[in-house]
């Protein structure tokens, strides 16, 4: 894990500071008391698991996994007509891994080893031992520091938590031997770090398969690694906040206004070539 000075340097980077503002705006919503917001948050959590399982399956198989694939499996499908069975098996394994990690309470070194087995990371025994040592170091450093992700934090607190998460993620990815050509080795770490974020008091994040591969090419540059991932986390936190606050009636109203505006613009464009009659009174469109 990074030393104190390195954490402060990463926490102070503009990209991390901006993401911290976005994260603080999200956690400021809690505790949720509005029934609609609670339902929206539950739906967001399901959507996030679908998207994460899709990415994990992409990393595991190297195949083009789609959101519909991931949705079918999340809903209980054990095969998908016309789709490779190894892809479906990878999606099932990804969901098992996500759910097991969310329920784990103790011995997170064993949890990561179990994730690696479930997700087919390809770690040999020496690698597993090194990963266990890395996780033990992380857990020791976090003793007594865990907090709720759904309680208010200052943006400075979010920035420090995000810097800590990024440093741990980068260290574990390097230990795992993950790189753009061995992206499957990253899969268990992505699951572990999202659970770690919860304990650090920041929300889970989402990375696409392309984002993961790009990040794996930056493991030797902590600042570039942070500058890439922090905005992605911030964008996801903004999306999460928008999903929680989504109001179907307001959405309908805005859609109606947009339709009316587009109709007016279409009429104006249709008759734009017609010369104006200076003697004709103005007509409201």
UniProtKB/TrEMBL annotation:
Chain intervals with Polar residues compositional bias: 142-154
Source taxon at top rank: Bacteria
Region (Disordered): 137-157, 248-285
Biased composition, class Basic and acidic residues, residue ranges: 248-279
Listed name of the protein: Uncharacterized protein
Organism encoding this protein: Bifidobacterium apousia
């Amino acid at each position: 894990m990074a030393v104190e000075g390195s954490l402060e340097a990463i926490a102070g980077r503009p990209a991390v500071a901006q993401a911290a503002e976005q994260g603080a705006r999200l956690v400021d919503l809690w505790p949720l008391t509005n029934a609609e917001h609670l339902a929206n948050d539950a739906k967001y959590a399901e959507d996030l698991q679908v998207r994460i399982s899709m990415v994990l399956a992409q990393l595991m198989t190297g195949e083009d996994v789609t959101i519909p694939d991931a949705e079918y499996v999340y809903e209980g499908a054990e095969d998908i007509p016309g789709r490779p069975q190894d892809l479906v098996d990878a999606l099932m394994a990804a969901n098992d891994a996500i759910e097991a990690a969310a329920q784990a309470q103790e011995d997170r070194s064993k949890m990561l080893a179990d994730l690696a087995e479930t997700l087919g990371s390809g770690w040999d025994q020496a690698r597993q031992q090194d990963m266990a040592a890395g996780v033990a170091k992380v857990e020791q450093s976090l003793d007594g520091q865990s907090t709720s992700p759904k309680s208010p934090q200052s943006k400075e607190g979010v920035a420090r938590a995000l810097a800590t998460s990024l440093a741990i993620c980068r260290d574990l990815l390097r230990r795992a031997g993950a790189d753009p050509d061995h992206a499957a080795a990253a899969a268990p770490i992505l699951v572990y770090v999202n659970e770690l974020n919860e304990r650090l008091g920041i929300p889970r994040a989402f990375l696409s398969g392309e984002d993961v591969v790009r990040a794996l090419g930056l493991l030797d540059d902590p600042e570039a690694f942070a500058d890439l991932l922090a905005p992605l986390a911030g964008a996801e936190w903004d999306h999460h906040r928008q999903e929680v606050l989504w109001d179907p009636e307001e959405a309908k109203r805005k859609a109606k206004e947009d339709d009316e505006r587009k109709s007016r613009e279409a009429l104006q464009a249709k008759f734009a070539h017609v010369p104006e009659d200076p003697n004709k009174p103005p007509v409201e469109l």
